[in-house]
Amino acid sequence: MAMIVEYVVVVVVVSVADLHTGNNGQRGTEDLCIHRIGWQETEGVISSEVYEVEAVVYQLSAKNGETWDERKQRRRKDGCKVVTGDERLSGRRREMTGGTNLPERRTPAEAAAPEVVSGGKLLAVNLYISPLVAKCDDPNAMEDKDVAEVVTLLDRACRDAGFFYVKGHGIPDSLIKEVRDITHKFFDLPYEEKVKIELSNETGYRGYQRVGVNITKGVPDRHEAIDCYRELNKGMYAGLGDPLVGTNKWPTDPNNFKKLMEEYLVLCTELSRKIMRGIALALGVPVDAFEGKIAGDPFWVLRIIGYPGATSISDEGLPKNDVGCGAHTDYGLLTLVNQDDDKTALQVRNLSGEWISAVPIPGTFVCNIGDMLKILTNGIYESTLHRVINNSPKFRVCVAYFYETNFDAVISPLDTCLKKTGGNKKLETAVYGEHLVSKVTTNFSY
C-alpha cells in the first residue's frame, strides 16, 4: 500500500513562508496539522504568529485517499503532541523542540501577514511596518510592493478590528524596555515620594494620581499613573486649552526619568505620523491628508500607568473584578501601547461583542484607533472599546502614547470617506480640544 509522509508541527511561532517549505522543502500547508499555544488552529492556511521561532516536526504515515477530517481525527487520537502552557514556560519545551528552529528570514510581505489570535478568536494583525516607515515620505511609495502590502493589511486591520500590532517600527527594543523599567522604578517608590508630583486641576491635570482617583463611567479604576500632555500656555486657542495649562510634573527620582521620556515622546510622535500616512494611503486619500489643519501640529498625551497585582492591595473602596481601567475608547487618532511582556491584562471587544485578551508580543506596540479617526473616516474605521483586567499577582506597567489632532482642529468626515459610506454623515463634527477637555475634567474623583 502506498504511503505518504505528513508533518505534524508543534508551533510557538510560524509564518506562511516557514511552513510552505516544511522539513523537506516541498510540503505545503495542506499537509500540516498545526497546534499553537492559545492560538487558533487553521485548516489549509496558516497565518498566525506569536513571537518565537521554535518547532518540533513529527513524521506520520497516512493512507492515500484519507480525507482531511479523517486525518484530523486520527491525529488527535494518535501522534499529535501539543505543547501546554506549563511546558511553554519551562525547560521541557526546549527538550521537545530539540533546538529545531524554523527559518527566521522572511520577506516584508510575508512578515506582515500574520493574524494575532487569542483564545481562538481573531484579535488583530501583527504588521511588519518597516517598508512603510522607510518610504512613507516618498511620493511614489505605493509603487513599492512591500509598502502596498503593508498598506493593504493596515486597512484590513483598521476595518476589521480597530486594533493591530506593529513591529519593524524603528524604535529600539532597548529603549522600549528601558521606558518600562524606569516606570517600574518610579512606582516602586514609597507613596510619600510619588505624591510630591500629585495631579490636581490646579496643575492642569498633570502629574501623579494614586490608585482609585481615575474614574471610568463613574467607577474608580485600579491603577496609579502619571499623566502628561503637550504643554499649553494660558490663552492659547482662545482659551480652549486653559483647563490643561501648565508644565508636566516629571519625577526627579529616578533622576533620568524626564530625559528618557522626552526622548521616547519624540520617537513615538514621528512613528505615529508615519503610521497615519499609511492609514491615509489605505483610505485612498492624499498621503498628507492627516497633516495640515488636522494634525500638522499634533497634540499628544502620555499616560505612564501602574496596575497593582490582583491581590497586592485591599479591595475596600475599589472596583470588583480587579478592573485596572474600565471599558473606554481613546480620544484622538492613534495610540501606541508599550506594555509589560510577561503579563496579559489588556482586553479588546471585537465586532461580535466578545472580550479578547491582547497578548503581549515583545518588540511590538499594540496600536488602536481613537475617536477622531473614527469621525474622519465616517465610521469606516472603528475606535474599539478596550479595558484592563488585573489578573496577575504581579505589578504591571503600561506606557500609552496618544497621538492626537491639532488641539483646535475641527474634525468631520473626509469627503472621500463620505462617498465610500453612501454620502451620509454618520458622525457629528467635533472640536478635538473640547472633546479632550470634557473627558479629562470629568475623569477624577477628587
UniProtKB/TrEMBL annotation:
Compositionally skewed regions (Basic and acidic residues) per UniProt: 84-96
Pfam families: 2OG-FeII_Oxy (PF03171), DIOX_N (PF14226)
Recorded superkingdom: Eukaryota
Catalytic activity entry: L-homoarginine + 2-oxoglutarate + O2 = 6-hydroxy-L-homoarginine + succinate + CO2
InterPro entries per the UniProt record, alphabetical: DIOX_N, IPNS-like_FE2OG_OXY, IPNS-like_sf, Iron_ascorbate_oxido_reductase, Oxoglu/Fe-dep_dioxygenase_dom
Signal peptide annotation: 1-17
An annotated Gene Ontology molecular function: metal ion binding
Disordered: region residues: 67-113
Assigned GO CC terms: cytosol
Domain Fe2OG dioxygenase: 297-405
Compartments, record wording: Cytoplasm, Cytosol
Record keywords, A-Z: Cytoplasm, Dioxygenase, Iron, Metal-binding, Oxidoreductase, Signal
Family: Belongs to the iron/ascorbate-dependent oxidoreductase family.
Protein name, per record: Fe2OG dioxygenase domain-containing protein
Organism the protein comes from: Ambrosia artemisiifolia
Lineage, uppermost ranks: Eukaryota, Viridiplantae, Streptophyta, Embryophyta, Tracheophyta
